[in-house]
Amino acid sequence: MRIVLLLAVLFVAAWLSEAMAAGLPANSTLMLQNHRGHRSPRSPKAHLMITDDNWDPYTFIPVKEVQALLMRNGTQDCCPAFENHTYIQVGKNRDGNTVNIAKLEVPQFFVEFICKPQVVNKPCRLADRKLINQTRCVQQYSYSYAAVGNGTEIEHIEVRAGCACKVFPKESEDTKKGHKLRHQHRGQQRHKKSD
105 lies in which domain range? Predict the structure, then answer.
């Protein structure tokens, strides 16, 4: 028992000196308990990684840290987007046809909400670990009125309208096997062609 206690004290002392050398406050966490009880290494600045610019969806963040983040910063988007005022010259109408936006005395600008490049088609932030690989941030679209042609017609044109978190069904084992067999078959065909 004394040996275990001595080892724990030595570990804490080594951790504190490492934390102080890294310029971290003494209450920072370098190791966290995962759900199975095994200790896993963790970045000392993990609580600072929850930003739009350097979000890593595969970094496990315990619920308590997520709650602390929400208390500190307010609500968070699972798939953040940014607002952009866009001048569009050519658009797509509801039928999918390309239309020329009219050139008026005052240019037509459209407000778009665009998925941030670092999250588009990536797993959603703050999603449950069991579902993270089934989620994707997807650009959403809506329609806005625009003067088209020579300026006498009004049409709906497609504009980007936000970034949504989509949850996709998990692939069945049969589907995965089908993909694998298809890739193997293609590989065999390529080898035959090269012979």
Answer: 77-171
Say if 103 falls within a structural domain. Answer: yes
- As a whole number of angstroms, the distance between CA 164 and CA 115 comes to 8
Of the candidates 150, 148, 145, 126, which has an alpha carbon nearest to the alpha carbon of residue 137? Answer: 126
- Residue 42: inside a domain: no
Structurally, the chain folds into a number of domains equal to 1
CATH no. for residue 142?
A: 2.10.90.10
pLDDT of residue 126: 84
Mean pLDDT by 10 residues, the chain (195 residues): 49 49 41 39 48 66 82 87 94 95 93 94 88 94 95 95 95 64 56 56
Task: Give domain status of residue 6, yes or no.
Answer: no
Q: Whole-angstrom Cα distance, residue 125 to residue 57?
A: 5
Give, in order, the Cα–Cα distances in Å from 141 to each of 50, 92, 130. 26, 11, 28
